[in-house]
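Good morning,

Attaching, inline, the backbone tokens for the sequence recovery test we're adding to the shared suite. The designed sequence is right after.
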């Protein structure tokens, strides 16, 4: 089964959809925080800050210089698009400036999304 299809099926399961916030925090700290920030003092730096990412139009923060590909992607971030981007940024948005190999484990992606959802 393709990873994105598996991910879509696992997000449909209520037990899986919640993710583990603590595990997501650990993952964010180890894999994301060198470029992205969250929380009350978050600001864009090497990557955009990720507070209130759900519902945000891709490439829309004024304090970050996105690639043209991201600005023109037409994406509004939700769990499905975020999961696809986390899994393989260059596949979802060819030409993105994000240099990240991705995370293929659906459970880890769900954990990371659960953590990001705590920053509204």
């Amino acid at each position: 089964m393709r990873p994105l299809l598996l991910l879509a099926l696992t997000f449909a399961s209520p037990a899986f959809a919640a993710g583990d916030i603590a595990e997501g925090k650990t993952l964010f700290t180890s894999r994301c925080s060198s470029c992205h920030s969250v929380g009350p003092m978050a600001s864009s730096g090497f990557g955009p800050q990720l507070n209130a990412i759900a519902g945000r139009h891709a490439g829309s923060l004024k304090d970050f210089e996105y690639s043209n590909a991201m600005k023109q992607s037409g994406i509004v971030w939700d769990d499905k698009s975020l999961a696809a981007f986390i899994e393989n940024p260059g596949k979802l948005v060819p030409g993105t400036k994000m240099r990240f190999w991705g995370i293929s484990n659906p459970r880890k992606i769900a954990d990371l999304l659960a953590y990001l959802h705590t920053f509204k």
